[in-house]
Design brief:
This protein has 266 residues and is an alpha/beta fold. Helix content is 34%, strand content 17%. The strands form two sheets. Strands 3, 4, 5, 6, 7, 8 and 9 form a seven-stranded mixed sheet that branches. It is rod-shaped, with a radius of gyration of 55 Å.
Length: 266
């Protein structure tokens, strides 16, 4: 059917908001903004054969994709290192224990009649010795012999050595703790009844006196072992490595001699 509208009819439809389109009429392209903002139109029939367009709701824009939820969970706490297993006291004693050999006379052939005065009834030397069967061998043994000879103790038949020897790793040699060694030394002192106990070195001092103090502090203070006076000084092996301490060691030996002579003076 043909659609023929006069100017009055077209004006009435435009006032109603109805857009009239007829075949053969050129329509201007709507601006780009209108295509985006204006709702789409659909054709509806009107009276008289005219075709009107009704507003069609604009399609909703697709919802923006939601961003994937970030993994914000707290990282797992680092595993604490396993605590080290404490070493039982018995195992520690076996690892650092010492063997105490029976006291042996160093100069058994010395003539008692020629023993210088002032040396007392006897001496007990406590020291760590690598080879207890030959205590005066090697460089350390020769230095020990020279120290005792400088004190004239080589002329005394009652100079005994209680040799301490480190326990072999994993060995079953009767080694014990420092407290056990101190008890054995106390029994030796009670048996030999020396006038002086001369303790050489930190290892021997710790074992004989059951003390953990530094060697310098033990050297300075007076000590007693089972009621017998004791003097602590450096051991020969250390003096071989540190020649500068020989003078300090000689001063300790002179102090031990002075203690014995003072006790023998009526």
């Amino acid at each position: 059917m043909s659609l023929s509208l006069d100017a009055r009819q077209r004006a009435m439809l435009q006032e109603m908001g109805v857009t009239v389109w007829a075949p053969g009429e050129a329509t201007a392209a709507p601006p780009a903004a209108a295509l985006v903002a204006a709702p789409a139109a659909r054709a509806v029939p009107v009276h008289g054969g005219a075709v009107a367009t009704a507003a069609r709701p604009a399609p909703q824009a697709p919802a923006a994709p939601q961003p994937a939820q970030a993994n914000i969970s707290a990282p797992a706490a680092p595993r604490a290192p396993a605590a080290s297993t404490p070493v039982p006291p018995a195992a520690a004693a076996a690892a650092t224990g010492l063997s105490l050999h029976a006291p042996q006379a160093l100069y058994p052939t010395a003539d008692p009649a020629r023993t210088p005065a002032g040396l007392g009834s006897g001496w007990l030397i406590v020291a760590e010795i690598p080879h207890p069967a030959e205590p005066l061998s090697g460089d350390a043994g020769k230095l020990l012999d020279n120290m005792l000879r400088a004190m004239q103790l080589h002329r005394h038949p009652r100079v005994f050595l209680a040799a301490l020897q480190r326990a072999a790793p994993g060995g079953q040699d009767g080694s014990g703790s420092d407290a056990d060694v101190a008890g054995q030394l106390a029994e030796a002192v009670a048996t030999l009844r020396p006038a002086m106990v001369l303790v050489l070195g930190h290892v021997a001092a710790r074992a004989a006196l059951a003390s953990t103090e530094p060697l310098g502090r033990m050297r300075a203070g007076p000590h007693t072992l089972a009621g017998c006076p004791a003097v602590v000084t450096y051991d020969p092996a250390f003096l071989l490595r540190s020649q500068d301490n020989k003078a300090a060691a000689w001063a300790d030996l002179c102090r031990a001699l002075a203690t014995v002579r003072a006790a023998a003076t009526p």
